[in-house]
Amino acid sequence: MTNWKVEVGSLGGAVAYKVHPASTKPPSFISSHHGVCFLLPEKANYKVYSFQDNCFSFVTEKTADKVRPGEFNLFNEIMVSELTEPIVYLVEKSDIRISPYAILKNNLVGALIFRDQQITIEMIKFPIPEESKIPENFNFGPGSHDNQYGINRDNFRFTIPNKEVVVWSGPSLSICMTHIDRQSL
After folding, report:
1. pLDDT tier, 181 (very low <50, low <70, confident <90, very high otherwise)
2. What residues make up the domain containing 77?
3. Residue 59: its pLDDT value, please?
4. What distance in Å separates the CA atoms of residue 171 and residue 38, rounded to the nearest whole number?
5. Per residue in 59-76, pLDDT tens?
6. Are 112 and 72 contained in the same domain?
7. Residues 6 or more apart in contact with residue 103 via CB below 8 angstroms
8. Structural domains counted in the chain
9. Residues 79 and 12 reside in one and the same domain
């Protein structure tokens, strides 16, 4: 018999399950595969996320028509028999927002990274209204508009006494700093 240790905890206010690899390994090969089951309280659409290396990732979903409310529901896409290290899973209704970023004003999301009496560091994700370019179709020179403005960037906002700046990576991985007006955000 193979057992998997499961620890129940909380992550950002949601119930989280840390699933460990099997306590005993099969002697030569895995003869059967085991998926994860979650007790789903009501008929609704659900999404499962993993949390690993300080990062959330969407894993799978189950539509309401396949949910058995009040029972354990199998998620075959998550094979615990193949785990090699512990992993944290969260299961929530699909309409629940799961993100490490808080919703700010003007459709921005961000996170506080550090704050003390002299400096505040925040990460702000600015939406850009076009698709990101991929290296295979990036044929623009360094001086062209498409090269300078077409790629999504993560920006780090610093608040220093009487100044506010955004630090971002520029061409050739250079570090750039732009002064901003907080009233415009």
Report:
1. low
2. 4-93
3. 92
4. 46
5. 999 999 999 999 999 998
6. no
7. 97, 109
8. 2
9. yes
Stated pTM of the model? 0.60
Say yes or no: 110 and 71 in one domain: no
Q: End-to-end distance of the chain based on CA atoms, in angstroms?
A: 58
Q: Do both 29 and 85 map to the same domain? A: yes
Say whether both 10 and 79 belong to one domain: yes
Span of 17-21, 70-74, 77-81, 134-138 with lowest mean pLDDT: 134-138
The tally of CA atoms less than 13 A away on the side-chain side of residue 139 is 2
Q: Are 160 and 119 in contact (CB under 8 A)?
A: yes
User: Based on the domain organization, do 87 and 108 belong to the same domain?
Assistant: no
What is the percent of the chain with per-residue pLDDT over 70, rounded to a whole number? Answer: 63
Last residue within a domain, chosen from 75, 93, 111: 93
Q: 89 and 16, same structural domain?
A: yes
**Beta bridge pairs of residue 38:** 73
What is d(CA 106, CA 43) in angstroms, rounded to the nearest whole number?
A: 34
Nearest CA-CA partner of 91 in 108, 106, 72? 72
Is 184 strand, coil or helix?
Answer: helix
